[in-house]
């Protein structure tokens, strides 16, 4: 693989769940675990919340899911610091702004609170390790599907948020994958700044300039963009564009069923938080010798550097099965 900037110790989730001890009789009323994120009302984070809640229920421990309903990194920082002030036993956090979150994470570690990042990492902080998607690989898979849909030729617009490390890795994966299709060009990269309306407005603007510059495909590296592009294309009765989305928002899945979105890259937010809480619980009952050691450079570390929960392509061939599985796992919530 062309990108080797980081060395990850990737541990299969199943192995970790197998290794986690049965601590059912060890829990106390003082155990309190917190998940912190942004946009916590969107379907992606509702699925993550369901995984977190299910793990807490199994372990019979208290839990909270904190963070703003919108994309607001400063409010996320405040929610994280609230969890620290309430003396959380352990914290899972998705760092919307890794630089902004660094000092808060480091302070939590210094206070003896284990912190694990999920979904979006803060690699320069003292967090213990990260659980989530191999975003480079997810982007690579998206690029392969894009090349197939475009038959190796076309002009592409990418919607992203450059400040998030996970999205940056996805873009790197797309670029690497498209390197073998030199006739596919990324014409424009748009920073949506956490606002899906920018996706809607930019797509509308692009369609209005088709005579000057033709765009053949739209790639969305985050959860909210795909349905916005699909809405604009549907409203304008445009059927000759390719959309590759990210994640499994119900509207995204519906547009896949209708054939408007070609495919989406599905992550496993439920798994991330389910496994994450159980690992925090294990760290509470079997404490590390140090929370500040750089375990990623220790060949005999008691924790991994990165746990890859996997990703997959969802398209018209498997979308119905995916929807059914999602409803079962999340209790039918959207």
Helical segment count: 11
Q: How large is the share of residues in beta strands?
A: 15-25%
Q: Kindly, what is the distance between the CA atoms of the first and last residues, rounded to a whole number of angstroms?
A: 36 Å
Order of helices and strands: HEHEHEHEEHEHEHEHEHEHEEH
CATH class of the largest domain, anyone?
Alpha Beta
Output the structural class: alpha/beta
CATH homologous superfamily identity of the largest domain: Response regulator
Rg measurement, Å: 20 Å
Q: Could you tell me the mean pLDDT? A: 90
Percent of residues in helical segments? 40-55%
CATH topology of the largest domain: Rossmann fold
The tally of strands reads 12
- Spans where pLDDT lies below 50 across 5 or more residues: 1-25
Shape: elongated
Counting structural domains, the number is: 2
Which CATH architecture of the largest domain? Answer: 3-Layer(aba) Sandwich
Give the strand order of the largest sheet, numbering strands 1, 2, ... along the chain: 2-1-3-4-5-11
What characterizes the major β-sheet? 6 strands, parallel
What is the element layout, followed by pairings?
Layout lengths: L12 H7 L12 E5 L6 H17 L2 E5 L6 H13 L4 E4 L4 H13 L4 E4 L11 E3 L2 H16 L3 E7 L4 H14 L5 E8 L4 H13 L8 E4 L4 H11 L6 E5 L3 H8 L5 E4 L2 H17 L20 E3 L3 E4 L3 H12 L4
Parallel strand pairs: 1-2, 1-3, 3-4, 4-5, 5-11, 6-7, 6-8, 8-9, 9-10
Antiparallel strand pairs: 10-12
Helix pairs in contact: 2-10, 3-4, 5-6, 7-8
Key phrases:
12 strands; 6-stranded parallel beta sheet; alpha/beta; Rossmann fold; disordered N terminus; 2 domains; 334 residues; 11 helices; 6-stranded mixed beta sheet
């Amino acid at each position: 693989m062309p990108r080797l900037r980081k060395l990850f110790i990737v541990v299969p989730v199943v192995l970790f769940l197998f290794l986690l001890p049965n601590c059912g009789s060890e829990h106390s009323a003082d155990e309190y675990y917190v998940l912190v994120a942004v946009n916590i009302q969107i379907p992606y984070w509702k699925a993550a919340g369901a995984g977190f809640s299910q793990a807490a229920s199994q372990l019979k421990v208290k839990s909270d899911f904190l963070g703003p309903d919108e994309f607001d990194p400063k409010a996320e920082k405040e929610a994280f610091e609230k969890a620290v002030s309430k003396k959380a036993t352990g914290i899972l956090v998705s760092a919307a702004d890794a630089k902004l979150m660094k000092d808060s994470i480091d302070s939590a570690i210094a206070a003896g609170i284990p912190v694990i990042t999920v979904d979006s990492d803060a690699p320069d902080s003292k967090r213990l390790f990260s659980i989530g998607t191999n975003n480079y690989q997810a982007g690579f898979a998206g690029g392969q599907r894009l090349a197939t849909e475009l038959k190796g030729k076309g002009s592409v617009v990418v919607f992203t948020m450059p400040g998030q490390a996970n999205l940056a890795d996805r873009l790197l994966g797309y670029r690497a994958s498209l390197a073998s299709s030199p006739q596919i060009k990324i014409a424009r990269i748009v920073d949506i700044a956490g606002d899906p309306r920018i996706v809607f407005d930019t797509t509308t603007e692009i369609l209005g300039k088709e005579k000057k510059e033709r765009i053949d495909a739209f790639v969305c590296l985050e959860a909210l963009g795909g349905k916005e592009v699909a809405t604009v294309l549907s409203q304008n009765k445009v059927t000759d564009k390719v959309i590759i989305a990210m994640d499994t928002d119900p509207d995204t899945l519906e547009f896949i069923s209708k054939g408007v979105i070609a495919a989406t890259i599905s992550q496993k937010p439920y798994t991330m938080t389910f496994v994450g809480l159980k690992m925090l619980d294990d760290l509470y009952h079997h404490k590390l010798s140090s929370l500040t050691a750089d375990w990623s450079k220790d060949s005999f570390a008691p924790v991994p550097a990165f746990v890859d929960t996997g990703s997959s392509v969802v398209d018209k061939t498997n979308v119905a099965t995916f929807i059914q599985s999602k409803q079962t796992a999340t209790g039918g919530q959207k």
